[in-house]
Amino acid sequence: MYLHSAFKKESEELEQMKRVERGKDMDSLLYDLLTTHSHINFGEDAVRKIITDYLGAKTKFETDSKGNLYINVLKKNKTPSKVMFSSHLDTVDSRNKGVERIILKTEDDWIRCAIVKEEKYLTVGKEKVNKFQLESLARKRDMDFDTYTVRDGKVYGSDEPLFGNWVYTGIDAKIKSEPKLRANILGADDKVGCYIMCRMIEQGIPGMYVFHHGEESSCQGSKYIAREYKEFAKNFNYCIAFDRAGYNDIITKQSGSVCCSNEFATALAEQMNRRLPPQEKMKPSPHGAYTDSASYTEIIPECTNISVGYKSQHTDDETFDHEWLTVHLLPALFQVDWESLPVSRDPSVRTHGYLGYGGYYGNYGYSAEDEEYGSGFTNKGGIWRKTSATTASMTRTVKRGAKNIRSCFDRYKHVMKNVDTFDPETGFDDTETEEMKINRILLTFLSEEMSETEKAELVLRAYEVNPDDVEEFNSYHRSWGL
Ligand SMILES: [Zn+2]
């Protein structure tokens, strides 16, 4: 009930927002990037094409076998820059492939994404009735049940839905549906980063611009470059990622390991702040989680990640401050003299990660086991696969001790957010195998941090639901917000 009423409120809230018009309310490039799905499962080709088409034939680009896209802007004297700029092509949105993504804006120019979903409701006669109205209609007929369901246009009630009788209430009703807006992951993480890089390329700002493949799936693209093209990566003094939430951070540590010097971060903040409003200034922050620039910390001296104004990334509430991006951040980035920034950190000196583990940072700090954990959760068509190995691996990873514990938890939370937990009234998907079902229940225990009693209650609820009624129950419960 709780979730459903939240959804209703959200739907109204979204209906009130203005639909963003491409090229009018928002730059066409940014609009195209945000409306194009690019979860790693669906591929990143469409986004790469948007970028290369936008920059036009005069811009040379390269791709590698992983799908990283490289665009090199030389300095005026035709020599290469020492700066690598970084963003990622993929997003975490693995659902609703092919469904139109509607871009909305609030009055304050915060951007959201919604999709249209059918919402079910019940009518009695010509009246739309909610759960309480239906109960009161039943009481008028001297009936009062714990549960009601609709079958073949008739409302039945029961106190024991599994084994008890269903009693016809004498009320006839129809389940109907209407299209409603539903919030969806926007993917400003990291389409905003991609957009910033395109605009910088357009401005002719020298640098090697790397649009990374698969950041959200354990930084596959950047790890590949760090491993296979180490000599290439050695050309750079700086790796600047545009992939940080909020307004103010220049990240100096990622997952607890130092990624750039304070001198560098302070100097960059000072340069950017010349163009930023007094209430929102950049400053060094040690609280970075992980992004592609972390893959290069043993090769490139100054690696950072900069706030680009998005928030609630990886959730359906994701949003970003469009005005901040266009009015403040882009002009501030355009006037930074990147190569003048100090180079102080020695990338060969390894620093300690979380809890003082003698941190070999390696491939970003994940062992093969972590890798399995990170990429093991793949959501194909809404079904989570390979979960048992990954759950076990995660447990082992956490048990193994302090090493990168923070990044493991970040990743764990991120994955959990995307898992459909088991709900007896929704049941399982037809395509789920027994093993998958067991794993989904296990994940539900984990992600909802259930106590033993809560687990027992879940079993009891599952026991009380008649599987035959699940579908009807579903539509009924959805319409009634249970
Ligand atoms: Zn990101």
Question: In summary, what is this structure?
Answer:
The protein is α+β, with helices and mostly antiparallel strands and 482 residues long.
Report the structural category. Answer: alpha+beta
For the termini, the CA-CA separation is 4 Å
Q: What share of the residues does DSSP label as strand, in percent?
A: 15-25%
Bound molecules: zinc ion
Find the count of extended strands (DSSP E, 2+ residues): 21
What fold name goes in the CATH topology slot of the domain at 4-111 and 185-343? Aminopeptidase
CATH architecture of the domain at 4-111 and 185-343, by name, is: 3-Layer(aba) Sandwich
What's the helix count? 15
Report mean pLDDT, rounded to a whole number.
Answer: 83
Question: How would you characterize this protein structure?
Answer:
- The chain has 15 helices and 21 strands.
- Strands 1, 2, 3, 4, 5, 6, 7, 11, 12, 13, 18 and 19 form a 12-stranded mixed sheet that branches. It has a 3-stranded antiparallel sheet with strand order 8-9-10.
- The protein is elongated, with a radius of gyration of 26 Å.
- It is an alpha+beta fold.
- Among the domains are: about 5-110 and about 185-345, Aminopeptidase (3-Layer(aba) Sandwich); about 125-170, no CATH class.
- Bound molecules: zinc ion.
- Zinc ion (ZN) binds near residues 88, 190, 243 and 291.
